[in-house]
User: What shape does this take?
Amino acid sequence: MTAATGPKSTANPAHLMLREVWSTGDIELIDELVADRHVHYDPLFDEPIAGASALKEWVGTVRTGSPTLTKSVRETYVDGNAVILTYTSTGTHDGEIMGIAPTGRSFELEGASVFRVDDGRLVETVDVWDTFGLFSQIGAFPEVV
Assistant: This one.
C-alpha cells in the first residue's frame, strides 16, 4: 500500500467524502461521489446503507445531531481500487440523533473508513469507529459509580 494524494488519485473521492460531505454537510456531492450500487457499512446498523438517497439521509441525520462534526484525515493508504483513510472525528452533540436528546457535550474519537472505488466513484464504504467512545462522551450511557 502507498500513500496517494495527487489529483488523479484513487483516494480523491474518499477524501471528498470525509472533507466535504461529512465535515461540511455538502450532501448533494454524494450524487457525484458514489455509484448507484454503493453500499455503506456502519457499526451502528445490522444492514448496509444502500444507495445515494439512503446515504444522504444518514449523513443528514448525523449532521443534525452534530452540526459541528469534522472528520480530519490522518493517514491515507491506496492499494489498487481500495482506499483506507484513518481520521479523527470531533464535534458537539447539539441536536437529537437516534432518539438521544442533545447534551451539548463535545466528543473526539478515532475511526477508519475503507473505500472501494470503481471508475472514479465509491462503490463500497466500510466504517470502523469508536461507537462506545462517542456515546460515553456525549453522556448517552448512565454513569457507572
